[in-house]
Write a structure and sequence with these properties.
Blueprint: H1 3-31, E1 44-45, E2 48-49, H2 50-74, H3 76-87, H4 91-112, H5 127-138, E3 147-148, E4 151-152, H6 157-167, H7 172-179, H8 190-197, H9 201-207, H10 220-227, H11 231-243
Antiparallel strand pairs: 1-2, 3-4
Helix pairs in contact: 1-2, 7-11, 8-9
């Protein structure tokens, strides 16, 4: 094959890789949902999980880079001649700047992207909170007497709490013991809140205006996307119900 034929083949393959990367990028960015708030079944497209599409995107990217190097090697004489024509004696600096341009682009994106964005704040749970909830969910047992949400009451506190309940009022300290260690994020479910605090998850759902058929075992983040309430509203409702 002639050199021009090789260039044609490489250019066609470059176009195929670029088109594939673009289509998969649109799928990952606009079509296939991400994050724990999205249903796992929704993360599949044409039978492949979004991570599998991401792997294909990575393979196409590697192939694109290899083909681009081959393309430059095949066109090196033209590249050098055109660079000398445009930059005269500054051929070497021009080539160095061009080679470093991808790193510069990545640096600019890194500088322009916020490091602590609220958009991703509920994508995970801090390690201490995560261990706390894993312990609560794994032990599917009711709290022991005198123990609520991982705190233990000392002798005398139980009687004091009973007296306070009889009077119909809950002190701020008791309220803090009940829900102070509970982090309400998009990862938690109404069923986990009910197990940790004793507050009815179905009642919280009713006060949020959710339909009676809604599952209590669905993450709040997913329910938020579907029904349009705020996570803070769950915290406020839980606070009021505990104080009641």
């Amino acid at each position: 094959m002639k050199e021009s034929d090789w260039r044609y083949v490489v250019d066609v393959l470059l176009f195929v890789c670029l088109g594939g990367m673009t289509l998969i990028g649109i799928l990952l960015g606009l079509v296939i949902p991400a994050g724990p708030a999205a249903a796992e079944s929704a993360k599949y497209f044409l039978g492949l999980h979004r991570h599998q599409w991401g792997n294909i995107h990575a393979y196409l990217s590697i192939a694109f880079v290899v083909l681009m190097v081959v393309h430059i090697v095949l066109s090196w004489k033209w590249v050098m001649a055109k660079t000398r024509q445009i930059f005269k004696r500054g051929v070497t600096p021009a080539l160095v700047v061009t080679a470093c341009a991808p790193l510069l682009v990545l640096f600019l994106f890194w500088v322009g992207t916020p490091e602590d964005s609220d958009k991703y704040r509920e994508y995970g749970i801090e390690s201490n909170e995560k261990r706390h909830f894993q312990r609560q969910v794994a032990e599917e047992l009711p709290p022991a007497p005198g123990e609520i949400a991982g705190t233990q009451e000392t002798p005398g506190e139980e009687e004091s709490q009973a007296d306070s309940t009889d009077r119909g009022d809950t002190s701020e300290e008791e309220h803090r013991r009940t829900v102070g260690t509970l982090a309400i994020t998009g990862r938690i479910t109404l069923l986990e809140i009910e197990r940790a605090t004793g507050v009815s998850g179905r009642t919280i759902a009713d006060r949020l205006g959710l339909p009676p058929t809604v599952s209590l075992n669905e993450p709040l983040g997913r329910l938020k996307q579907r029904y349009g309430f705020e996570i803070q509203a769950v915290r406020d409702i839980l606070d009021r119900m505990v104080k009641e």
